[in-house]
Amino acid sequence: PLLPTECDPDKQVAYEATLDPVGPAVRTLRQHTDFIFDTAITRSVDNYLSYISDLLASIFTTRPDTMRSSEQVKFETVLSFTEMSELVGFLAETKVDRLGYSNIRELSKTIKNQLGIKLHADDLECDRVYEIVALRNLIVHNRSRVDRRFKRERPEYPTEIGHRIRLDFDQCFDDTNFLAESVAQLDLRVVDKFNLTTFPNKD
Length: 203
Prior knowledge:
With 203 residues, the protein is mainly alpha-helical.
């Protein structure tokens, strides 16, 4: 018998689809899994870090007394603001920016000492967040390739120096959910301690 392609081009497309039930869209996605998983981890970590920054800014502006330190501010800076709320907002933003240069472990210790709150439930959670952030940094700053610092801190990691990390669906799914759960639990602890204003989730 004649193949569909020999009598009708439209039937040929339908015929080939029966031979390949996966379809061209799924095949295309499979060709770009590295990009998809890398993007998912990167966006998740960026959202996590943005949340931490926004949370700290909210604490500092709601409770300016939490910014007490030996740091000095120039008179000209103070006098450039006409409202106290503007000055507080500026100081909060400045402090958050400085804290942003700390890695997760350093930030966790600093926040616990200065604010009396735990960014993470325990050291195991902190270590896992630290590693997920480190993976994100490799993706963004080193083309997803393992460098000496990463390998020195994690000698058991299966990928060798100079080779590309390969994330899979399970790891990507677990890591993004882990960060989301970490944020949810931290939010409960901090809102209760500092009586912060909350907003309903519209999603």
